[in-house]
Amino acid sequence: MIVPVLLAGGSGTRLWPLSRELHPKQFLNLAGEQSLLEQTFLRLREIPQADTPLVVAREEHRFLVAEQARRAGCTPAILLEPAPRNTAPAIALAALQAARHRGGDALLLVLPSDHVILDVGAFARAVAAAVPAAADGKFATFGIVPKLPETGYGYIKAGGEIAPGVRALERFVEKPDRDTAERYLAEGGYYWNSGMFLFRADAYLAELERHAADIAAAARAAHAGLRADGDFLRVEAEAFRACRSDSIDYAVMEKTHDAVVVPMQAGWSDLGSWSAVAEIGACDAQGNVLQGDVLAEDIAGCFIRSDGRLVAALGLRDQVVVETRDAVLVADKSRVQDVRKIVQRLEAARRSEAREHRRVYRPWGSYEDLAVGPRFRVKHIVVKPGARLSLQMHHHRAEHWVVVSGTAKVTCGAREFMLSEDQSTYIPIGEKHRLENPGKLPLELIEVQTGSYVGEDDIVRFEDAYGRTSK
Question: Are 402 and 454 in contact (CB under 8 A)?
Answer without folding.
Answer: no
